[in-house]
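Q: For a teaching handout, I want to show students what a protein-ligand complex looks like in token form. Below are the inputs, and the small molecule is iron/sulfur cluster. Please produce the holo structure.
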Amino acid sequence: MSYIAWFEAHAKKHRKIVDKLLACGMDKEAIIKYFEFENMAEKEGDFCPLYAEGKKCHDTEYLNCYLCACPNFRFSDEGIETNGGKTKYSFCAIDSKEGALATYGDAIHQDCSRCTVPHAKRYVEEHFDLDWKRMMQACVVATRKASEC
Ligand code: SF4
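A: Here is the structure, written as tokens, with iron/sulfur cluster included.
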């Protein structure tokens, strides 16, 4: 699946759940609580494929799914830049020390597997918005292939 296909599909799933919770009268605090891993795995099985396995994406006690993927993630399916025959398709905007760039053949992608930044309760509270796409609006970056600059 391309980055943008995942992004659009996830936005719809997030919207549907948030709309349901708002219709139930939930406020920000209750919505954040609802999006905690244990509750989401029990009630929203379609939101993440890992729920079916009861597995967290990160080995951490508290894990909130509201800001999955991460507002700091940047991607372009066409490639952001090309250097030395390799094309970078994603990166971390804050260069988190827990994140890393990983190379797969000629492709470079951001590896967030060791970073829990967007899953912390305080981070979710600070960046909370009912509109997932608004929180993630900077994630989709324009293509800037070095060969075209
Ligand atoms: S490394 Fe961490 S902060 Fe950076 S994009 Fe990945 S999850 Fe977000």
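A: Two things your students might notice: Residues 42 and 54 are 9 Å apart (CA to CA). The pocket of iron/sulfur cluster is lined by residues 70, 72-73, 92, 94, 96, 98-99, 110, 112, 115, 117-118 (CB under 6 Å).
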